[in-house]
Amino acid sequence: MAFELPNLSYAYDALEPHIDARTMEIHHTKHHNGYTTKLNAAIAGSELEGKSIEDILNDLDMSNMAVRNNGGGFYNHVLYWDIMSPNGGGTPGGDLGSAIADAFGSFEAFKDKFSAAAATRFGSGWAWLCAHKGGKLDICSTPNQDNPLMPSTGCGGHPILGIDVWEHAYYLNYQNRRPDYINAFFEVINWGRVAELYQVNS
Ligand code: MN
Description:
Bound molecules: manganese (II) ion
Largest sheet: 3 strands, antiparallel
Strand order of the largest sheet: 2-1-3
């Protein structure tokens, strides 16, 4: 069973004005679709075919650049669409809200640290909020389409929130103003979904 590009649960224009419809459409139908197609080609006929994407990334041979780039690209974008919503924004409560306060001092301190990780990632990549078994949280970033599930990325735990800081994620609307895109991303974060991922992965 090949990997399939997931449908979004909202329209391409649903995240406006924070993320524009043209960016969303190209990002989904071109970029994410491309990673999906190339991942399937890279694993076809190999022992990776039929494994879950999480198993593939956890056990990844980091010298296998086709699977590293496209498997990461497939997984990362599935998460990215999933943790955004037109009804997003605000702050998380419950266990996740408490864990954020424990780890970072306050939601504002968390937002500052996450935003700094995203803003200072040189070139293309992602910033992550990761949950560890036992409930701890931390923030990290990875280059290109690397992902905390992969070996030896310097990130640990399971990603429960990720921001794409490739220029293709924001350039049409924000040009070089990555910090403005990062602020806008906070207006569309689906904290209810992030909280579900925290429960499952902590
Ligand atoms: Mn992307």
